[in-house]
Every structure is written in structure tokens, then in C-alpha cells.
Design goal:
60% of the residues lie in helices and 12% in strands. The protein is of the alpha/beta class. The chain has a domain at 268-405. Helix 8 crosses helix 12 and helix 16 (516-529) packs across helix 17 (551-563). The chain is elongated and about 195 Å long.
Length: 734
């Protein structure tokens, strides 16, 4: 049962690698993780040594580094600035990008050489040797320098050192700048930080004073020039107004007193134009009214019907008509009262018509009067237009002179106001830079910090260890684990043969059918049966890259296990240089493969029986002078042809591949090649070179048998299973 389990583990792994597209859709993260863990476990000593060495270097470096102290002073920088021309108060800069630019400018001033030079001079640091040593610089030598030259050199060196050890931090969301000075002396660090803050404040005040002095001088010159221009422009304006006959009038406007030129002609023209426009409207209305009434009967005109006199006459007529009707009902038409009533009615009709005609005629008279008034006004307006146009021409020059005078007056008033303000506030200390916190003497050094250095050393140690492991894995071609076979060679793993203890014999362990070694070889045979599409290859060559890797033992064991299954097996020792099979089999004969290949003996004469009925063997005797020449002849082909006819399996115990051509010749005649690798040795590319030689001759490499595999020391997925499997049979009570 255990043998079948190991067979399934190895063979299933090979199948999954031959057909990866059927088993996975992407990278196998679990396999990657196992590979990493495997590499770590293989190189645990290297990793530990690298990390410990890096930590030790970190501790040593921390102890050797000279302690440094940081002292910080904080200053508040307000984004305010004096304006010379506009406004009389300090105004904040509104635009955000202007604020950032202003703050960056202040940072540039703090880090300038001129400010650093002020600090050096005020603290007399250029004459203090302790200053140079505290800031990590050498004291300037006085070789060839004397007097002022030496002082200048020391001062320049002091400024360079101070700027080198100055740190300025101004966060984007704050206006508090932190000035930090780093040195080897705690007291000196605090002193320099405070001096820097003080000199910066004084520097800003001095800049303001110099700016105010310059502004007063500049404004004084500009004020005198503006006064002269204003006087001349006012004089020119008055002279032109007098010559042009224009009257200057001052009135109160919305924005203060306003001055304009008074023109009688323009005023008259405006009034007449308004009257003419009104007369035109009146004439049009009167004309429309007359046109409406002229074709209508007088009594149908609304003005007539609405007239009170007409209404009264109509009322009297209606009353008399009523009386006439009553008289007619009592008298004849010729009766006096009837005639009298008719006469009254006729008189009333006449009076109504006369009154209606007069009312209608009044509309016509209104139209005629409006037309005459329009004609008169339009005539007067036309006469005044030429006078107004001539006066406007004169007003253009007046406007030009007036604008010049107004501009000069506005400039003069602005300069005078600002000059008076600056003169009144000269010497005032309105500073937008203030000290928030003064630097204190630091108690503990800022560097080195042991914990930080150790953490950094640990990170570097891990990085170096990872690099070392990576390089070692890249350049290490040793085949010690199943993963190495598949990852480094790209060939299927057919069998794992465990390593024996020093006191154990390989033959005894193979003879013990319950031992781990015996079970491992039986699993190898089982996997060989599934290594090709037709089952077990008829001619199987077993070889290795170099001698001593266990290929001969593997060949004998595979032959015995297959023969125990009832198949006819022929084991051939093809190592004609140093044959060993005859000694292991206890054969003292002198005939073997060499005699058959040279034609001295037949096939049946050299085949010898073994202790297993279905297993025969052919030794490599006698040793020829040129084995490669014999193996490359036609005799080997004829020998293998007879072996194929008489046996189910022919196992060829070949020579190592490297340095010899014998194994390559034998592999080209075989149906499959089983490559044996010693898991306890270091190969230095020997395995890859050997496999490359097999590829060149087109040999069918079925897979690899990893010999002397140590499950307890392995770091692969086989470790836990293999340990329990190999110990299963030996621990069981018999």
C-alpha cells in the first residue's frame, strides 16, 4: 500500500507538470510560496549570519558616530507687505499663489549667505575654533594668509559650515518656520538657532526701514514733478476757456465735486429742441384729430355730443318735442300753439348746428395753430445748430485739457497722501516676522539613535540576506530535492531513493522487502511502467553524469524487481572499462559482452543465469583496449536485436556520461534512458551537461531517479510524507 502511495505522489506530480493547462489557469502561488520557504530553510544559516553581521555593523557604526544635537527656534511669517502707491494700510496678499511665492521668498532669505554672514559676525563664530570643530569642519589654516585675508577666509568657511548644518522647515499648511541648527555641541546649537531667529527678524525690519526711506525720497521727487504738471495744466485750461468763451461750472456729483464748462448756446438749443419736439407731437395730435372730425357730421363728433351747451339745447328740444306731440293730440297742425312749438324746435336745431359747427371748426384751428408753432420752433432750432456745432469743436480741446488737468490732480493728491502717511509712520516697527519659540539647549543627541540604526541595519540585513540567497539559488545547480529536479532540469521525477545510515548495507536493505529503500525501488519500477505510452521500455539504459551516483545499484535493483513480476529480464554490464557486475553476481568467468561484440563468442555463450529464474545477465568482460570503438561497431546492434527477441526488458548498466562517449552510444540504441542523480553531491553543472549530450543524440530521457535523498533534511513537500513512509515498514512489529 505504501509503495502505491509513493508511486501516486511522484507520478501524479509528473503528469500535472506535463499537462499544466489542464490543472491550473495561472501561476501556482502555493508552489511559489513553497519554493521560497524551501530556499529560506536551505539557507537559514546564511540568512542568520548575514543579518547578525549587519546588526553588528549597525551597533559598531552607532558607537563610532559622533553624537549631534539639534536645537530649533520657531518664527511666524505673516504674508503682509507695505504698498507705496495704493492704500494707506498694510494689506494681506489675497491670491494663494502669491502667498506661496512670498513664503518661498522668505525661505530663500533665511537660507541666504547674507543672513548667515550676519549670524556669524554677531556671534563672532569665525574667531572661535570650537565653532568649526562643533560643525564638523576643519579650522582654516593660516599658511600664507595674514590679517584681513585670513579673517575673510575664516568668515567664508564659517558661513559655509553654518548653512550646511542649517535646516529650515515650513509646512504647506502653516506659516511657522522652524530654524534648526545641528552641531556636536548642544549649547552652541541653541545659541546659533536663537541668533538666526533674531538676525532674521532684524534683517526684515532693516529691509522695511530701507524701503520706507527710499519711498520717501522717491515720492518727494515724484510729488514735485506732479505739482509742476498740475499748475501748468490748470493754467492752460483757464486760458483756453477764456479764449473760447466757455464758462467753468463746479457741481456736486455722486463721487464728489465735478467741474464742467457752461454753454449758453447749448442750453438754449437743448430747450428749443425739447419745445420743437413737443410742438411736433402736438401738431401730429391736432392733425390726427382734425382728419378724424373733418369727414364726420357735426352732431356725431364726440366733442359736440359731450358739450354741456349742446346737451342742454338737446334736452330743451326733447321737452318741446314732447309738448308738440301733446298739442297735436288736441289741436290741428294750423293751431297756434302747434306752430309755436314747431318754431321753437326749428330754432333749437339751428342753434345746435351752429354750436356743433363751431366746436368742429375749433379742432381745425387747433391744428393750424400747432402747425405754425412747429414751423417756428424748427426754424429756430436749425439756426442754433450751426452755433452749437462750432461751440462743440471748441469744447473738444477743452475736454482734452480738462482730462490732463484732472489726471495731474489725481496723481498729485495720491502722491501727497502717501507721502504724508509714510512721513508720519517713518521709523515705526510694524514687523510681520515674530519669534514664536526660542531654542532650548537639547538634552539628548538627535543622532545617532541606536534603535533606528538597528532597525535600519535589520532591514538592510534582510535585503542583503535575500540578495545572497537569490544569488546562491541562481548559481547553485546542486540537485538535492525533488523540486530541484523539476525546477532546474525540467525533467520528470520517477523515483526517490532514500539515503542509508552509515552502518547500513545497500544490498541488505534492498533484500529486505519491507525496507524503505526496497519500497522506493519498487515505486520507481511502477513509475517506469507508466513512463511511456506503451508501458515499460524494452531496452532501458541507466546512466548518470559521473561515477559513484548509484546507477549500477539502480540497474540491478530495477532488473530484479521487474524479473520478480514474472517478466524475462536481461541485465547487461556495458562498462567495458571497469566492469563490476560479474563480481557482484559471484561470477568468476572471463567471458562477457566484449566477446560477443568482437565475434569471439555467441550470444548464448555469454548470457549467465542469476538467482532469479527470469533474470539473466551479461558481464562486461573481458576489458578491451578501446571500448568506445567496440561499442560503436555493428556487434552492439546485433546483440540488442537478439536481446529484444528473447527478453521482455533489457537493462543496460551504462557508463557515466561526462568525459566518455560510451554512454552516449548506448543511449542512442535504447528505447528510454533513466538518469540517476546523487542527491548528496554537488554537481557544478555536470547534470545539465550530461543531459545536453543525451539531447544531442536524440535519446529518450524518461525521467530522473534521485538517489541518496535525505527526507529528514529535505525542505520539500515530500519531507513529512517521506519520513513517515520510510519509517513505516521498519517500525512495524513483525
Amino acid at each position: 500500500m505504501a509503495g502505491k502511495d509513493l508511486q501516486n505522489v511522484v507520478f501524479d506530480r509528473d503528469v500535472s507538470e506535463d499537462y499544466p493547462e489542464e490543472h491550473s489557469e495561472g501561476p501556482d502561488l502555493a508552489a511559489v510560496f513553497r519554493t521560497v520557504i524551501s530556499a529560506v530553510r536551505r539557507n537559514v544559516l546564511l540568512i542568520a549570519a548575514t543579518i547578525v553581521a549587519t546588526l553588528a555593523l549597525g551597533v559598531v557604526a552607532t558607537l563610532l558616530i559622533t553624537p549631534k544635537y539639534k536645537a530649533s527656534a520657531q518664527v511666524l511669517i505673516e504674508d503682509q507687505a507695505d504698498q507705496i502707491i495704493e492704500g494707506s494700510e498694510l494689506q494681506k496678499i489675497g491670491a494663494g499663489w502669491d502667498t506661496d511665492r512670498f513664503l518661498q521668498t522668505q525661505l530663500g532669505i533665511i537660507q541666504s549667505r547674507s543672513l548667515a554672514r550676519l549670524v556669524v559676525k554677531s556671534g563672532r563664530f569665525s574667531k572661535d575654533d570650537m565653532f568649526f570643530s562643533a560643525l564638523g569642519g576643519g579650522v582654516p589654516s593660516n599658511d600664507g594668509l595674514f590679517g584681513k585675508k585670513l579673517e575673510a577666509v575664516r568668515e567664508d568657511e564659517a558661513v559655509d559650515l553654518l548653512l550646511k548644518n542649517l535646516q529650515v522647515d515650513l509646512p504647506r499648511d502653516s506659516r511657522i518656520a522652524t530654524l534648526t541648527v545641528v552641531s556636536r555641541n548642544a549649547v552652541l546649537s541653541a545659541q546659533m538657532a536663537n541668533l538666526y531667529a533674531q538676525r532674521y527678524v532684524e534683517y526684515n525690519l532693516n529691509q522695511k526701514y530701507q524701503s520706507s526711506s527710499y519711498a520717501r525720497q522717491f515720492l518727494g521727487d515724484q510729488l514735485a514733478e506732479a505739482r509742476a504738471k498740475l499748475t501748468q495744466s490748470e493754467h492752460d485750461l483757464n486760458q483756453y476757456a477764456r479764449a473760447a468763451g466757455l464758462i467753468r461750472v463746479t457741481s456736486q456729483g455722486a463721487n464728489g465735486p465735478e467741474e464742467s464748462a457752461l454753454s449758453v448756446t447749448n442750453s438754449t438749443l437743448v430747450q428749443l429742441n425739447e419745445a420743437a419736439s413737443k410742438s411736433v407731437a402736438d401738431r401730429i395730435a391736432a392733425e390726427d384729430r382734425w382728419k378724424t372730425l373733418s369727414n364726420q357730421p357735426a352732431l356725431s363728433v364726440p366733442e359736440v355730443t359731450s358739450n354741456q351747451a349742446v346737451q342742454q339745447l338737446v334736452s330743451e328740444k326733447t321737452k318741446i318735442q314732447g309738448d308738440l306731440a301733446e298739442e297735436r293730440s288736441r289741436h290741428l297742425e294750423e293751431f297756434a300753439t302747434v306752430k309755436s312749438k314747431r318754431a321753437q324746435i326749428s330754432e333749437l336745431d339751428r342753434r345746435i348746428n351752429v354750436l356743433a359747427d363751431s366746436i368742429k371748426k375749433s379742432a381745425y384751428l387747433d391744428y393750424v395753430a400747432a402747425a405754425e408753432r412747429e414751423k417756428s420752433l424748427v426754424s429756430r432750432v436749425n439756426r442754433l445748430q450751426n452755433d452749437a456745432l462750432n461751440e462743440q469743436d471748441r469744447g473738444v480741446q477743452y475736454s482734452v485739457l480738462k482730462r490732463v488737468a484732472d489726471t495731474n490732480r489725481a496723481l498729485y493728491e495720491t502722491l501727497l497722501s502717501r507721502y504724508n502717511q509714510i512721513s508720519a509712520t517713518a521709523g515705526a516697527s510694524n514687523n510681520n516676522i515674530t519669534i514664536v519659540d526660542r531654542a532650548e539647549v537639547p538634552r539628548d543627541p538627535s543622532s545617532p539613535i541606536l534603535f533606528v540604526n538597528l532597525a535600519l541595519a535589520l532591514v538592510l540585513g534582510i535585503i542583503f540576506a535575500a540578495a545572497a540567497v537569490f544569488l546562491r539559488e541562481i548559481f547553485d545547480d546542486a540537485i538535492r530535492t525533488p523540486e530541484d529536479v523539476e525546477r532546474k532540469l525540467g525533467i520528470r521525477l520517477l523515483g526517490l531513493i532514500p539515503m542509508l545510515k552509515d552502518e547500513e548495507s545497500i544490498d541488505e536493505r534492498i533484500a529486505d522487502r519491507r525496507s524503505g529503500v526496497s519500497e522506493a525501488y519498487r515505486s520507481l519500477v511502477t513509475n517506469l511502467q507508466y513512463s511511456t505510452a506503451t508501458g515499460l521500455p524494452q531496452v532501458l539504459t541507466i546512466t548518470s553524469s559521473k561515477e559513484g551516483e548509484g546507477k549500477s545499484t539502480t540497474a540491478r535493483t530495477v532488473a530484479r524487481d521487474v524479473a520478480s513480476l514474472g517478466k524475462k529480464v536481461l541485465l547487461v554490464d556495458t562498462d567495458l572499462r571497469r566492469p563490476t557486475l560479474h563480481r557482484i553476481m559471484g561470477d568468476e568467468g572471463k567471458s562477457g559482452l566484449t566477446d560477443v561484440l568482437t565475434g569471439n563468442k555467441t550470444f548464448d555463450q555469454v548470457v549467465a543465469p542469476s538467482d532469479i529464474e527470469t533474470l539473466n545477465y551479461v558481464s562486461g568482460l573481458p576489458t578491451p583496449p578501446d571500448p568506445a570503438l567496440i561499442l560503436s561497431g555493428e556487434g552492439l546492434t546485433a546483440f540488442l536485436a537478439l536481446a529484444r527477441e528473447r527478453y521482455d526488458l533489457v537493462v543496460i548498466d551504462s557508463l557515466p556520461l561526462l568525459g566518455l562517449s560510451d554512454a552516449v552510444i548506448l543511449s542512442s540504441h535504447a528505447d528510454g534512458v533513466l538518469f540517476v542523480i546523487d542527491g548528496a553531491g554537488f554537481h557544478r553543472g555536470a547534470v545539465k551537461s550530461a543531459l545536453r549530450r543525451l539531447t544531442l543524440v536524440g535519446a529518450n530521457v524518461l525521467g530522473v531517479a534521485l538517489n541518496r535523498f535525505e527526507p529528514r533534511a529535505g525542505d520539500s513537500e515530500y519531507e513529512y510524507y517521506a519520513y513517515n513512509y520510510y519509517s513505516y515498514g521498519s517500525n512495524e512489529k513483525r
